Amino acid sequence: xxxxxxxxxxxxxxxxxxxxxxxxxxxxxxxxxxxxxxxxxxxxxxxxxxxxxxxxxxxxxxxxxxxxxxxxxxxxxxxxxxxxxxxxxxxxxxxxxxxxxxxxxxxxxxxxxxxxxxxxxxx
Length: 123
Fold this sequence. Notes:
- This protein is an alpha/beta fold.
- The chain has two helices and eight strands.
- The chain has helices at residues 12-23, 76-88; strands spanning 4-8, 29-33, 37-41, 48-52, 69-72, 92-101, 104-110, 116-122.
- The strands form two sheets. The chain has a four-stranded mixed β-sheet with strand order 1-4-3-2, with helices on one face.
- A hairpin with a 5-residue loop joins strand 7 and strand 8.
- The longest helix has 13 residues, at 76-88.
């Protein structure tokens, strides 16, 4: 249902390195790099994350209030591993891994530019 989600960046090289390095254990890589936008994912036809410099160059890229990208980790153990990987790659904690409700386990972080994301497992 989702083709891709786009987040803004002020530093394309840093954003590509962070997101492709973080999502590599899930089979993701930079699939297409068009200069001001790059798509990271497992393959075309599957959901992707795009990082880009804003089309509106009069305002800087900034994280949205209430915006978040959620990545299924496959297990609680993978949530812990991927969350730790995010922090090692330069992310900041925004909610350590744990149960948020009986069937939801998640670890929240912000990428180096402040975009919020979560690795989660349902069940």
